[in-house]
Amino acid sequence: MGEYGAKDARWISMAGMTPVILTGALFVYFCGMVPTIASGGIIRHSIPWIPSLDIALSFYIDGLSLMFSLLITGIGALVMLYSARYLAGHPQFARFALYLFSFMLSMLGLVLADNVLALFVFWELTTFTSYLLIGFSHADPKSRRNALQALLLTAAGGLALLAGFILLGFATGTYELSEINAAGSLASNPLYGPILVLVLLGAFTKSAQVPFHFWLPNAMAAPTPVSAYLHSATMVKGGIYLLARMHPSLSGTDAWIWTLTIFGGVTAVFASLMALRQTDLKQTLAYTTLMALGTLTMFLAGSSGYAITGAMAFLFVHSLYKAALFLSVGIIDHATGTREAGVLGGLAGAMPVTAAAAGLAALSMAGIPPFLGFIAKEVAYSGAVGASLWGFVVLAALAANALMFAVAGIVAFKPFFGPQGKLPHAPHEGPWPMLAGPVILGVLGLAFGILHGLAASWVIEPATNAVLGFTDSGGRVKLWAGFNLALGLSVVTFILGAILYLRHQALRDRLAAIEARGPDFDAGWDRLMAWLVVVAEWQTRLIQTGVLRQYLFATFAVTAVALALPLFWLGALQLDLAMPSVTLREGVVAALIIAGALLAATTGSRITGIAALGVVGIGVALIFIIYGAPDVAITQLLVEMLIVVLIAIAALRMPYLDPTDKGPAFRPRDAALGGVLGVLVALVMLMVTAGPIDRRLTDFFEAASWTEAFGRNIVNVILVDFRTLDTFGEIAVVIVAALGAFALLRSARRDKGEERE
Amino acid sequence: MNSIIVTAGARILVALLLVFSVFMLLRGHNLPGGGFIGGLLGATAFIVYAIACGTAEARKALRVSPEGLAMVGLGVALVAGLISALTGDPFFTGQWYWVGGDSYETAAFSINSVLVFDVGVYMVVFGGILSLILMLEEEL
Considering the entire predicted model, what is its pTM? Predict the structure, then answer.
C-alpha cells in the first residue's frame, strides 16, 4: 500500500468525503441520545418487514447498543477520513469507500436490531462486507485466501447462530430481543442447551476465540484502516456484543460460566503470548485484539456488577486505544515503508505527533493511571476476584495484562525512542487527516480517565445496566478506590510487565521455538479445504456421469418411488375396478396407442422408434378429440410434429453409428423400470377416476365464459381472460427457454469456430 | 435438400399454413384455435420453408429475427394487460369496445384487449419455437 497516498496526492473527493460526513452526522445523532439513555430511557422503533412471519425491522437503543453505536460511528468517521488520505490516488478507492461505509451501516444495524432475525441478516452483512474489505487487495492470492477463510469461518458460525435464534423463537414465542430478555433467564427451558451451544458457536467464530482464532491475524491482509476499524472497534466485537446482549437470558448457569471463562481465558493468555512472539507491529496488534476479545468473553461469564462494569469499561477503552494504535502503525508503515519491530526505532524526532498519539494510546493500553485503561483494569480485577472461578480468572487476567504492558512498550515506545535500524526510506510526519484519528482517540483515553465520572454515567454504566438486565448500584468506575486487592494486582502487573518488556527479545525466540512445535491451525484449515474439494470431486464424478441414459434412469426411478410411497406405504390406494363399457372407437384408439408403445419399446431402429412414438402421440390426440377437447388435440398434434422435426434434425447430425450394431436387444433393468412406472401411473389414473369429479370450476367457466368474457371457446377464454397472468408467465417461460437455447447454441458455435481457426 | 418438387410445394404450403395460422388465431375466442395454436402453426410454416429452401432463405423471408419477434410479442401481451389501468380495473382485466352498437348482440364487431393479448401469445410462440428450431438446424 506504500505507493499510494503520496505527499502531494489529491485526497479530497466525493467518494472519500461523503462517507465521512454521513458517518459524522450519525455520530452526532447518536450523541444526542446520550442524555435519554443515561437517565435510564430506552428508544424503540419498529417497521413491519415480513408481517406474515412476524418479522419486524425493529430497532432498540439502550445503553449497550448506544455505546456500540457511538464507537462504530465515531471511530468510523475518523477511520474513513484516515483512509481517504491513506489510499489517496488508489484506482479503486471509491470501491473501498463504498465497502467501508456499507460495513459501517451493517454493523450499526447489528447492534441496533431488536428482532433476532434482523440481527442475523445484519450479522451476515458484516461478514460479507468484511470479506470484501479483507480481500480488497484482490490481486494478491494470499489476500483472497485469507478473506475466504474469514468468510467461511464466520459464515459457518452465522448459520449456527441462525439455528440458535430459531430455537430461541420456539422457546420464548417471540423474536424480539427486548421481549426475550424481559422474560428473564432461559436456564430452565428444555431448549436451553442447544440454544446456548449454537449462539456461542456464532459468537466465538465472530469474535475469534480459540480454536476459531486463526482467521483474525490472517485478516490483517486488509489495508491498515480496515484492520483498525474491523479488528478493534467493530466486527470482531460483534460476537462480544451478542454475548452481552443475550446475557440476561442465557447467563448464570454453570455451562455459561465454565464455557465462557475457559474459552475466554485460554484465548486471552494464548493471544498475549503470540502477540509477544510477533515481529510485525500489525500482527502484534492483531494478537492483542484477540487477547482483548478473550478477556471480554471471560468477564462476560460473570454476572456481578464488577465483572460486567469491568467488561464494559474495558470494551470501551480498548476500542479507543486499539484503533489509535492501529492507525499509528499505519502512519509508521506509510512513512518508513516497514512495520518490523526490529528495525523501527528513534522515530520520535521525525514524527512527534504520531509518537505522542501512540504514546497516549499505549499508556492507556498498559493501564497506567490516570488513563481510562487503568480504571478499566482495576474494575476488572475487582470483578475477577469475585468471579466463580476466581483463581483461574485472576491468573489469566494477570498474565494477559502483564503481557499487554510489555506489548504496549513494543508497539509504542520502542519504535519512537528505541535504537533505529535501517529503514526503507527516511521517516516523515503523517498528514493531518491521518493524524486526526490517533490524536483524538489517544487524548480521549486520557480525558475520560480524568473525567471518569462522565465516561461512567454517559456510557459505561448504562451499558452495564443493559447487560445485567437491572439497574446496578454504579459508582464502581473510580480512579482511586483505596488500597485494595485490585491495586495490589495492578502493581504486580506493572512489575511483571516491565520485566517482560526488558526480556522480550529472548522470550520471542523461545516462543517461536514453541510455536513451531505446536499445532498449526492455519495448515489444518488448508487441509480441511483440500479435503472438501476432494469430496466434492468424488461426488460429482459419482452423480454427474454425463450419460443421458443414466440421468433418465435416475429421474424415472425417483418418480416411481415418489409415486409408490404414498400409494402403498401410506395406504392411499383405493381402486374402483368397475369397467365402463368401451365403444369400438375407443377400443381402436387404445389398440393403436398400445401397439405404438410396444413397437417403440421393442424396435432396434431409431427411425422406427420415432415413428412409433408419433403413433402414440396421435392416438392421445384422438382421445382428446373423442372427449371434446379440440384445442388440446390440435396443440398435441402440432407438438408431435415439431418433435419429429427436432429429432430428425438431431438424427441427421448424429455421429456415425454402426448399422449392424443394434445394442442389446433386451435391457432387463430398463424394462423393469418402464413396466413399474407404467403400472404406477395407471393405478394413479384409476384412483383419479374412481373419485367423484368436482365440477364446480367447469360449471363456473361454462356459465361465465360467454356472459363475462364474450367467448364460446372455454379453453381459450381461460387462457386469455380468466387466467391471463398465468398465460403471461408461461409465454415469458417460452422466451426464456428460447433465449437459453440460443445462448447455448451460440456458444457451441463459437467453440467450434475457435477450433477451426 | 435440393428438390424442385419440395421447394415448389413448400411455397404453396407455407402460404396456406400462414393464412391458416392467422385464421386460427382470430377465431380462437369462440372456436378451436387461439394464439398458442396459431403460433405453433406459423412456426411450422417457416420450418417447412427452412427444410425446403434452407435456413438462410427462411430467415430472409421472415425479415425480422425470431427472437426479436418473440420479445416484441411479450411486450404486446404486457401492453394488453396495462390497457386496463386506463379504466382503473385490475391488471389484465379484459377491455371491450363495441363498434356499431352497445353490446355483443347489437355491435358489428368489437375492439378488445383480449385479442391484443392473444396476438402477443401468437408472436411469442411463433418467434420462440422458430428461433429454437432454426438455431438447431444451423448449429447441430
Answer: 0.73
